[in-house]
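Support request, please re-run this one:
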Amino acid sequence: MPPGALEMNAPVQGHARVWIEGIETAVGGDGQIHLGDEATHVRTAVMRVEAARGDSGGRLLRGPVTYRTGEGRIELGLWAEQGLESYAGGIRYRRTVTLDALPAGRLWLDLGHVRGTAEVWINGQSAGVRVLSPYRYDVTAWVQTGANQIEVLVLNTLAPYLDVQSPTFYVFPGQCDSGLLGPVRMLTTHQG
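Re-run finished. Output below.
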């Protein structure tokens, strides 16, 4: 399940049983499964469907399994390894970094390896968008001594969604890889 999942909707034809991290969870008559209000991390769900008479294969579900999410925690790495195998869209990464003093030269935020497009904000100010490597941003103008809020929005393509929902020969190897892989570093350029 994706990080931050609060509710799961499994529109099954028949009767479903669901286990979250090995613990059976109640399934409502409409396929709604409440996952808890404090679900910030990635969890695993297993579903067993007792099919309605005459239903099998693709007829076990009336539609896709969907989630209602809140804020969650996602680690650096591929989204597919963190419950987002078929996700197409964006994820915001946030971190507060404290600087005791500002460097004498320029300060850069280097995102390392990114699979997607990345936009960066420092203390609410846009530092720019990158669509390909290097994912490096000059953040000198927006950092300050003390706490600095860094926000990175990574957007992927439709490839992961299409690969699962409507397989096509036009999704090539590697196109489904999405995420901020890092390492994320602050670098300085000394004036001299």
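The longest strand covers residues 90-99. Residues 79-189 form a domain with the Jelly Rolls fold (CATH 2.60.120.260).
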